[in-house]
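Give me the fold.
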Amino acid sequence: MDWQTLATKLFPEGHTVTEHEHFLSGTGSVEGQTVTVIGTTDHAPIGIEIALIQAQAVLATVREHPGRPILILVDTQGQRLRHRDEMLGINSYMAHLGKCIDLARRRGHRIVGLVYDQALSGGFITSGLMADACFALPDATIRVMGLSAMARITKVPEERLAELAKVDPVFAPGAPNYLRMGGLQAIWEDDVGARLAAAIRDADPVDRRRALGFERGGRKLAAPVAQAVGTGAHVLPA
């Protein structure tokens, strides 16, 4: 779904969202409440410029509109793979974006992420996954790394990784697998406007992804291990 159609469906009461060089910004009205909208489109690669402008938009909302909800629309191919961006410290720019989103949360802004097209690697981690809750449309493509690239990095044969992907969502791309792992709160298959209104109302700053992953059978050890670290208990055999 293109971002224009999506924005119209998300904000039937009206919106001012526009696009400039793959960056989405503006506001929308949800149940009479104004929501700041930031995001990306056209599978945008996240370079230092777009990371910084997203961070600036978040900080402007914190400064000028205390408590206003923030919606992050995600469509990215991940961080931009250029020598220039690496030399200028793209990791620091993306970390800055994540910190700004966390600052907004700490200041009382409810933050919702929505993957409406593609979400890959670091571009997703420092945007949608930084929200109080992240959602996706049914046809969204989500993955940290393709299996062929994973095979090159891990030296595990791609055929073996393909077998593992059939039974373990950690190895498999797609919104349903991220739902099982707790990375997504839900997949929006119906009225996205009503879904957004409910997501804003229910936004919770407490990170519950480990618990959701455990309940859904997608991450069976993250929650027990974290609890064991906190209590000093043992969860794995010696």
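The domain at 3-137+188-205 is CATH 3.90.226.10 (2-enoyl-CoA Hydratase; Chain A, domain 1).
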